[in-house]
Design brief:
The chain is mainly alpha-helical. It is built from six helices and five strands; from the N terminus they run E-H-H-E-H-H-E-E-E-H-H. Helix content is 65%, strand content 9%. The protein is flat, with a radius of gyration of 22 Å.
């Protein structure tokens, strides 16, 4: 079991793909990876492949957000209810902060105090991580596209050889 504040911290540090996978993992009963993949596609019409899903599930398992009670079956780690009212909705707060940073960053004003260099580096690292996840997803989609085109080209060559054999 993890506390709500631990959940919020860990969820906020996840990559984009891991967050999508975590949202699709069930709370009460363990599901196989194929069910989880179907749920991701149903919720977001997000096309993912099994390699990305498996990697994300392993990362979630390593971070303690997901459990694997039986080999190949996954469910979310139970959450201890917070005793403090300030921890009432940490996951929702993390999602809201993520949405506000995605929308539009406010223009810097001259009245802001200088930021901590470590905070700047942390923010840049988070952006780089999200960008790397998007690049990986794009690369996987391109690979699937190229593979499909290679199959089509092979069929065309077979047809050409067949037609030459008939002539």
């Amino acid at each position: 079991m993890i506390t709500e504040s631990q959940l919020a911290r860990r969820y906020h540090a996840l990559s984009v793909n891991c967050k999508k996978v975590y949202d699709a993992v069930p709370i009460s009963e363990p599901w196989s990876t194929s069910y989880i993949l179907s749920e991701i596609q149903r919720l977001r019409s997000y096309t993912s492949n099994m390699r990305v899903l498996t990697g994300s599930l392993q990362a979630l398992k390593a971070s303690g957000l997901v459990q694997e009670p039986q080999k190949g079956l996954f469910l979310r780690t139970p959450i201890k209810p917070g005793k403090d009212e300030s921890e009432a909705e940490p996951l929702e707060a993390a999602k809201q902060s993520e949405l506000t940073t995605k929308e539009e960053a406010p223009m810097p004003t001259a009245q802001k105090p200088p930021r901590n260099p470590m905070a700047i580096l942390s923010e840049l690292a988070t952006r780089c991580k999200a960008l790397a996840d998007e690049i990986e997803t794009a690369a996987l989609e391109i690979d699937e596209y190229v593979t499909a085109k290679d199959v089509d080209a092979g069929k065309l060559k077979q047809l050409q050889a067949l037609l030459k054999g008939l002539a």
